[in-house]
Amino acid sequence: MSDTASGWMTIENLSLRSGVTTRNIRAYQSRGLLPPPVTRPGARSAFYTQEHLARLRLVSRLQERGFSLAGIADLLGAMAAGKSIEQVLGIESAILASEEDQSSLVTERELRALIPEGIDREAAIKRMLAVGLIDHHQRKYRIRHARVFQLGVDAAQAGIPMEALLDEFVRLRADLHEIALRFVGLFVGHILQPAVQSGLTKDELPHLVERMKQLHQLAVEATNALMRQAMADEIEAVSQSTLPTR
Fold first, then answer.
1. How many CB atoms lie within 10 A of CB 127?
2. Cα separation of 2 and 162, whole Å?
């Protein structure tokens, strides 16, 4: 399996997908606009994730809107201080506004205590930052998906290596981005483009946002329901083939 398929990207992969040159990627890292890449056991290169790709796209959008790199750094600093910067990005902020906040704030000591014993906690925190499971929030850390994080800790305590869990988180996020792109393609092809071609006005934007919210909800609900069914099917298949019958 290639690193791109697994969700991990080399700097060349990241450059190709983001449209940002490798030189600028390194420059953004040096200016603190982009988190550093993460190393993987047995690999010589450092790797990037969807979190890095999302940050590069954000930086590019802000530049297109006239923000300087210094201004972008200030905005990203505001985000780390707990303020939202999505409001400057337009339609997506209206869609995300209805999302329930499932994050939680913890101190570094509390975060370290959550990581099971026997794991290099400093390395684990760096990797979790790189894959987007946690981020800095003032002098604390924000666990972006608290329930997912806790279930992952439970899985690690049950015997699944933390490294394998983080690899799967990266791969899953990459898979879900592909699914999201397909749903967004439906919206663009069947709703947005026809609306623009017919002369979309500013007054019609709220209606357009509502249509996107509906498709967003459909994608989330369908993915959740189908995943539950798929897991049940696969667990049943494994149980029949490996577990004792009596």
1. 22
2. 21
d(CA 79, CA 52): 16
Domains, the chain: 1-98 (1.10.1660.10), 100-160 (no CATH), 169-242 (no CATH)
Supply 164's token pair.
């394998």
pLDDT tens digits, residue range 133-177?
A: 888 877 889 898 899 999 999 999 999 998 899 989 988 988 888
In angstroms, the CA 111 to CA 134 distance is 10
Q: Is 31 in a helix, a strand, or coil?
A: coil
Comparing CA positions, the residue from 208, 49, 72 lying closest to residue 132 is 49
| Beta carbons of 143 and 182 less than 8 angstroms apart | no
Give the amino acid at 201: T
Question: What is the CB neighbour count within 10 angstroms for residue 102?
Answer: 12
